[in-house]
Design goal:
The structure holds two protein chains of two kinds.
Chain A lengths: L1 H14 L3 H4 L9 H5 L6 E4 L9 H11 L10 E5 L4 E5 L8 H5 L5 E3 L5 E3 L9 H5 L6 E2 L6 E2 L9 H5 L5 E4 L6 H20 L6 E4 L2 E4 L1 H11 L4 H17 L2 H5 L2 H12 L15 H16 L9 H8 L2 H6 L5 H6 L8 H6 L1 H9 L5 E5 L11 H5 L7 H6 L15 H5 L5 E5 L12
Antiparallel strand pairs in A: 1-8, 2-3, 4-5, 6-7, 9-10, 11-12
Helix pairs in contact in A: 8-12, 9-10, 9-13, 10-18, 13-18
Chain B lengths: L4 H11 L9 H5 L2 H4 L9 H10 L17 H5 L6 H14 L6 E3 L6 E4 H11 L14 H12 L1
Antiparallel strand pairs in B: 1-2
Helix pairs in contact in B: 1-6
The chains are: A alpha+beta, B mainly alpha.
């Protein structure tokens, strides 16, 4: 009897069809070519400062859905704030990882290869769970026949954009600078070869004729250990600081040889484990800097420079120093920190970065994420790609463009490189990239 | 204690539940079968229509709160019975009788906008996604649009 029952159950299991069997979730195709030439998706930009809240987009959209002008059955919703005089039209953002697809019980919503999220009317039961799951509640329930409508970009030719009288809606194909990546890697590779192999020890101190450069952190330690300020040495340290004052911590992202090693290590680490909260204090590096300077004062030699990964790298090349230096061991140790988070050393500990970070308080350029073009929760690629993790993904999920702390930013411009909408930009410090900077 | 008899009668009249022939097409189309493991005759549209017609105290029943108020049953019914409208009216009657434990209210406007079992289902689906930092499911969709407006202008 029991055997019969189990057999029956097994039969049921074998023959029962799940939703996964009938309509499996669509997997995103990854091609080799796509790495270099990602498919650009078209999208609608909304400019809140131009919108007057007239509702033309609603009306014209409803003609497509129901063949009559009825703003209640449109796929766009104009929200009006009479007190503040603000208007906003809620449009589907066509997320990269749509929550509505996850929530839909009948899998009626799919994201196509062209990046457009569509509702399949054959499967849709108009239950409205997609509107429940969407952060902006973009799928709209028709007040008349209770159908769910959602923007599908009119298959690449949106009516609302054509008919908006104030041009508050614009339609573009997006922008992705994938070539900056190549520039940065080239610059990093060249500076690695130059600093480590050609001009050995250049980074720490370098002199030809009357021109000299020096590492600012090393100079600070020099001053602390000897107690004497050599003007030539201090002036040569200013060269790097001057670059930082102009362009932020450009050195960390584009030149630093140890940063190049860390970027290479990032490529081979399959999965990161993350650090506990007490380690994740970005102020630690200023503590390390103070400790290095204080230690130099106490012991009379440059304490940090003996273990400095950048200096170690710069001094390591050549048969003589390669075999002599046991200090080379510091490089794999510090590089292995990357299993926790990308560029952990640069984020939390590097005193060279600390000096540059303090200098970057005086920088004249910034990176800003423009509010109108940024698609907030639907994309979040900039936060994923940022090696120092300063772009706040939670802020983006809330629908707010985050402010980037420039003392931490290493100016690698990966965010600008990746942003498919052209929202991340380099701007002057005093420029307002967006109305209500930071909030928007 | 009338248990909202008038309301139930009105719901029957408006949704045309008297015309039900118990063919079960609405059960076949119902997405609740996919959504809940414990889907049964008790919570299916046919079962609820039958209970309403027989005169059970349906408004005290938890089973009326599983429905997502979709169009599937209404569209397929050969008799034109709208199980969606019936369940809506039954829920209204239940809320008039102050049976609120299964109705979720919006944090901003206080409107009852979704039933708790449906919300649980959505929450279970979204659990694997990145955390919803601003309490997505506590706010009804129109209020969410308002918040989005305030954050972006």
């Amino acid at each position: 009897m029991n055997e019969q029952l189990t057999e029956q159950k097994k039969m049921e299991q074998d023959f029962s069809l799940n939703l996964d069997d009938v309509r499996p979730l669509r997997a995103e195709k990854k091609t080799f070519l796509g790495y270099f030439m990602p498919r650009r998706h078209s999208f609608v930009i909304f400019h809140p400062d131009r919108c007057t809240g007239c509702g033309t987009c609603e009306m014209i959209c409803s003609t497509r859905n129901r063949e009559k002008v009825a703003p209640a059955s449109a796929s766009v919703k104009v929200v009006r704030d009479e007190k503040g005089g603000k208007n906003f039209s809620i449009l589907c953002q066509h997320c990269r990882k749509p929550l509505c697809v996850t929530a839909c019980p009948t899998r009626a919503i799919e994201r196509g290869d062209d990046g457009i999220v569509r509702i399949d009317r054959l499967f849709c039961t108009d239950c409205g769970l997609c509107a429940m799951a969407c952060p902006a509640a973009a799928p709209i329930k028709d007040a008349g026949n209770q159908e769910i409508h959602k923007c599908d970009l009119c298959e690449g030719d949106p009516l609302c954009v054509k008919h908006c009288p104030e041009k508050a809606l614009t339609f573009t194909r997006g922008k992705a600078f994938r070539w900056i990546k190549g520039l940065r890697w080239t610059s990093q590779l060249l500076s690695f070869l130059l600093l480590v192999m050609v001009f050995i020890g250049t980074f720490c101190y370098f002199k030809t004729g009357s021109v000299s450069f020096a590492c600012p952190t090393g100079t600070l330690q020099n001053i602390a250990s000897t107690g004497a300020i050599v003007l030539v040495g201090a002036a040569s340290a200013l060269a790097l600081l001057f670059l930082t004052m102009v362009a932020g911590r450009l050195f960390c992202g584009w030149v630093c040889p140890f940063g190049f090693v860390l970027d290479l290590v990032d490529k081979i680490i399959p999965k990161r484990i993350g650090w506990p909260g007490f380690l994740k204090n970005r102020m630690t590096k200023y503590g390390v800097l103070a400790g290095a300077v204080g230690g130099s004062y106490a012991f009379g030699f440059q304490v940090f420079c003996t273990v400095c990964p950048i200096g170690t790298l710069c001094r390591s090349y050549g048969v003589q120093s390669m075999f002599k230096s046991a200090e080379l061991a510091v490089i794999p140790v510090l590089a292995s920190l990357d299993i926790g988070e990308r560029r952990s050393w640069c984020r939390y500990f590097c005193p060279v970065g600390a000096v540059l970070g303090l200098t970057a308080l005086l920088r004249i350029v910034k990176i800003s994420i423009g509010a109108t073009k940024c698609k907030k929760f639907s994309c979040i690629q900039c936060a994923e790609v940022c090696p120092v993790g300063i772009i706040d993904a939670d802020k983006l999920r809330e629908g707010v463009s985050p402010k980037i702390p420039m003392t931490e930013c290493i100016m690698c411009v990966r965010c600008i490189d990746r942003c498919p909408y052209g929202a991340a930009k380099v701007r002057f410090r005093w420029q307002k990239a967006v109305p209500g900077e930071g909030r928007i | 204690m009338k248990d909202g008899k008038d309301k139930i009668d009105e719901a029957k009249r408006l949704s045309g539940a008297d015309l039900c022939v118990e063919c079960g097409r609405c059960v076949a189309a119902c997405p609740m079968a996919e959504m809940y493991i414990n889907f049964s005759n008790e919570m299916s549209p046919r079962g609820i229509i039958k209970k309403t017609l027989v005169g059970d105290p349906v408004i005290h029943d938890r089973n009326i709160w599983y429905c997502t108020e979709c169009n599937a049953g209404t569209d397929t019914c050969p008799q034109g019975v709208s199980c969606r409208d019936l369940i809506r009216k039954l829920r209204e009657a239940a809320m008039d009788e102050n049976i609120m434990e299964n109705a979720k209210t919006c944090k901003c406007c206080g409107r009852a906008f979704v039933a708790v079992p449906v919300e649980d289902f959505v929450f279970a689906r979204l659990k694997e996604e990145p955390p919803n930092v601003f309490g997505l499911l506590d706010i009804c969709p129109p209020c969410r649009r308002e918040i989005y407006l305030q954050r972006n202008t």
